[in-house]
Design a protein that fits this description.
alpha+beta, single chain, globular, 9 helices, 7-stranded antiparallel beta sheet, 248 residues, Beta-Lactamase, 7 strands, 35% helix, 21% strand
């Protein structure tokens, strides 16, 4: 990850917590990405219907994103969106979700999702952000309007980043299905999932690229200050949020 640190102030699920990101740092490789890219290439080849998807409205944004990254030197093809997405899966370590504005709301119209955290790309395609986040407690009442305003006001050439966290009973990066809940105060096989999420609006199509860089580490190896902060934050969550985050 690029230095995002989880602190108590950043852990509330009702806090968007955006900060600026240098465009030069957006989707740039990190040391140690090789195993992630190999895993992503394998998933794109073996489970393409699970991890790659594009609707007609997403084809132009996929081509535009690929052209931007091709100008950086990435060997990406032109042509069918599905082929471009497969190449993107193995070229960058981040998952990439493309949101297009349909005149009323932002809709998920294309994506590469190799490392989901208990959700499937096929289940969310063609849906608005509010519909996508239907299972998220308080999203419609507390988060939908601020998120929509942010995306509408986002300008090309600027990038923003936020951190997200989760705990899981599995170390798998590719985690589309639910897993047994965990207790952050207990010992055992618990894993911390840290996500670095960024937002960039493309200049021509004005689609928003939502990227997710995921890292999974054993709970026991997480910095003590982060474990303390997560335990503290988890203790303040409502029963609905604890269930959503798979916490006992």
């Amino acid at each position: 990850m690029s230095g995002l640190v989880l602190t108590p102030a950043k852990l509330s699920p009702l806090r968007i917590g955006l900060g600026p990101l240098e465009m030069d740092a957006w989707l740039r490789p990190h040391p140690g990405d090789a195993p992630l890219l190999a895993a992503r290439r394998r998933l794109a080849a073996e489970q393409s219907t699970e991890v790659l998807a594009a609707l007609p409205a997403g084809e132009a944004p996929v081509a535009e994103l690929a052209a931007i990254l091709r100008a950086r030197g990435l060997p990406l093809p032109t042509g069918e969106a599905q082929d471009v997405l497969a190449a993107l899966a193995g070229a960058v370590a981040e998952d990439l979700l493309l949101l297009t504005f349909d005149g009323a709301a932002y809709v998920l119209t294309a994506g590469v999702l190799c490392f989901p955290n208990r959700w499937r790309l096929v289940d969310k395609m063609g849906r608005t952000l509010t519909a996508i986040h239907g299972p998220v407690p308080d999203y419609e009442t507390a988060l939908a309007s601020p998120v929509d305003r942010f995306l509408e006001r986002l300008r090309p050439g600027r990038a923003f980043v936020r951190g997200n966290w989760g705990l899981a009973s599995s170390p798998d990066l590719h985690l589309p299905q639910s897993v047994p809940p965990v207790d952050p105060n207990a010992e055992g096989d618990i894993y911390l999932r840290k996500e670095e999420q960024s937002f960039v609006k493309l200049p021509d199509t004005e689609a928003v690229v939502f990227s997710i860089r995921t890292a999974v580490i054993p709970w026991a190896e997480a910095p003590e200050d982060e474990r303390h902060a997560i335990r503290e934050a988890a203790g303040l969550l409502s029963p609905e949020w604890r269930a959503y985050k798979s916490l006992k």
